[in-house]
Amino acid sequence: MNSGKLPFEREREILIRKEEETNPDLGSSPDERSIEELLKACIINIDKSAGPTSARITDFVKEIIGTKKCGHSGTLDPGVTGVFPVGVGSGTKALHSLLIAGKEYLTLMRLHEEISERKLKKVLKRFTTKLYQTPPIKSNVKRVLRVREVYYTKLIESEGKDALFTVGCEAGTYIRRLCYDIGEVTGSGAHMQQLRRTRVANFDETTLVTLQQLKDAFVFWKEGDESELRKTLLPIESALSHLPKVVISDFAIPSVTTGAQLAVPGILSVESGISPGELVAVLSQKGEGVLYGSALVSSEDMISMKKGLAVKTERVLMNPSTYSTK
Fold first, then answer.
1. Contact 280, 245 (CB under 8 A)
2. pLDDT tens for residues 274-321?
3. 3-state class (DSSP) for residue 3
4. 150 forms bridges with which residues in the sheet?
5. Total-model pTM
6. Does residue 96 lie in a domain region?
7. 310 domain residue, yes or no
8. The Cα angle at residue 131 between residues 100 and 238, in degrees rounded to 5
9. How many structural domains comprise the chain?
10. Which of 10, 109, 116, 121 has the most CB within a 10 Å radius?
11. Model confidence at 1, in pLDDT bands (50, 70, 90)?
């Protein structure tokens, strides 16, 4: 695969099982939430700077907005910059879906000897595959052999011994190790100079905010201007946007948010191409995140089956009282 796309970026059709009206008095569209509601469950796409640890960045966010609960979507080494989604409040419940999502990095590699651009492109293409990797000594995780897939690579620029390229890869791919291995194959030797993460699933550099910008936006909100903070606090559903969608009836929501597994009669529509075992987002008709879980059957079966379970819940996101009529 060398299309410049991560695996979730595929065309999907909407398959209709049945149509049903939603109750306007229950729930609300994510776009209609107040700042106070967003602060209870949101994602902030932090532009991580070089130096602080991932844990320290998360602590900074806690301090700025005055919350007790924050989490991040996967550790970045202190020297790595870029896309760093932080979950706030109940937004932390959606972070697991990002841990397994594809990532993209902009990498500056230093070759120990100059090689031609043509040769470098050929070598990069060879690494667009599944790789056996052991994390480098400088990594913060246990050094065990693992398999990770590189979906695409693209050489942006090369000058002398320096090469700038992008890598789209599976979560847990070690770019420092990749640079070392590229150097071994070219015969020149190589090491990673700088690394910036440019994508985590659908989070990219277009929604990045620095810690200072977050702090300023929070101060402006306190003074009566919510415009900047509203752009900064992304609904919890933003962490599900890369997952195939299953839309369910209002009547099914109370049961699936209180422990029941989603059965096919509660489904209104699904996106095509869902396979058993695939992680899916279950949404209300208003686009609210109800839960995410593992598909038990295919998209086609969700539409054609008359009964049976469709999704095994991994994490409930919605408060059970949201669609309760009691």
1. yes
2. 999 999 999 999 999 999 999 999 999 999 999 999 999 999 999 999
3. coil
4. 169
5. 0.93
6. no
7. yes
8. 20
9. 2
10. 109
11. very low
